[in-house]
């Protein structure tokens, strides 16, 4: 994402910074949906989500500082403006990723200990699950209310933000899918790897952009445009993945039955 942002947005530093922040935010939520739709490996997906969650809490701020301040300086490029704050990124990550992760761990640990796994998964999760969706929808509505004028009045800028995102999704998905095939992971794990690599945690990227640069900043706008591009593209890649299962994984037991039966 760093390379694509600099290659395609050399004259738009705010959008470029926003895209780099998006690239640093690894997917930890929607990837489970794409994984299920493509009939990927659920256990492998859960493990990768857990690893990505912990890794972002530990390393996101340091990577942000490196890609926004250090690496551009080494390459003789323009570094991020003085608005950049390492500690603002640390706080944003801890608040918007650390708290939900700790809350999820505690509710599972305490809930299963007191009432058992059946109650936790059959009663508690269905009740608490919609809260996350309501929160996400509220966030999206508020962000579009604040950024709607910028999106509608600058369609060319939105198109320029979309171009590196499109390239990123296709490159990450295609490269990871081919790597999984090369490593003979089987279809299910290959699909999981590809969607984990291609997806991004736009909620975290938007939170970091807002916490560091402000809610009406170009960095936040780049994060808002992201889901508009990601959702339709990754839905399309689900179909690509299922097509590849039929064509490139003959006899693989992890290929979903409906795909095998359509041969």
TrEMBL record:
Keywords assigned by UniProt, alphabetized: Cell membrane, Membrane, Transmembrane, Transmembrane helix, Transport
Membership in a protein family: Belongs to the arsenical resistance-3 (ACR3) (TC 2.A.59) family.
Main location: membrane
GO molecular function: antimonite transmembrane transporter activity; antiporter activity; arsenite transmembrane transporter activity
TM annotation in the entry: 15-34, 46-66, 86-107, 128-146, 158-179, 191-214, 220-240
Any single GO CC term annotated in Swiss-Prot or TrEMBL for this entry: plasma membrane
Keyword Transport among record annotations: yes
Protein name per its UniProtKB record: Arsenite resistance protein arsB
Compartment annotation: Cell membrane
Source species of the chain: Blastococcus saxobsidens (strain DD2)
Membrane topology designation: Multi-pass membrane protein
InterPro entries: Arsenical-R_Acr3, BilAc:Na_symport/Acr3, Na+/solute_symporter_sf
Pfam families to which the protein is assigned, alphabetical: SBF
């Amino acid at each position: 994402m760093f390379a694509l942002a600099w290659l395609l947005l050399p004259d738009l530093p705010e959008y470029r910074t926003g895209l780099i922040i998006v690239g640093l935010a690894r997917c930890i939520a929607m990837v489970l949906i794409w994984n299920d739709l493509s009939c990927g490996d659920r256990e492998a997906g859960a493990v990768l989500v857990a690893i990505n969650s912990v890794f972002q809490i530990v390393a996101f701020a340091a990577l942000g500082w490196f890609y926004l301040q250090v690496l551009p300086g080494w390459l003789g490029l323009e570094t991020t403006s003085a608005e950049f704050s390492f500690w603002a990124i640390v706080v944003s990550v801890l608040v918007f990723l650390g708290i939900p992760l700790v809350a999820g761990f505690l509710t599972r640990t305490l809930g299963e200990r007191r009432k058992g796994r059946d109650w936790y998964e059959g009663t508690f999760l269905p009740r608490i699950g919609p809260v996350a969706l309501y929160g996400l929808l509220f966030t999206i509505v508020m962000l579009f209310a604040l950024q709607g004028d910028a999106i509608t009045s600058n369609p060319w800028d939105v198109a320029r933000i979309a171009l590196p995102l499109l390239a990123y999704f296709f490159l990450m998905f295609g490269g990871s899918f081919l790597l999984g095939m090369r490593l003979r992971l089987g279809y299910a794990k290959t699909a999981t790897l590809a969607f984990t690599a291609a997806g991004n945690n736009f909620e975290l990227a938007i939170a970091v952009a807002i916490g560091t640069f402000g809610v009406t900043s170009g960095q936040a706008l780049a994060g808002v445009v992201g889901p508009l591009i990601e959702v339709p593209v990754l839905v399309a890649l689900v179909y690509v993945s299922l097509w590849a299962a039929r064509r490139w994984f003959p006899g693989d037991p992890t290929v979903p039955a409906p795909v095998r039966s359509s041969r």
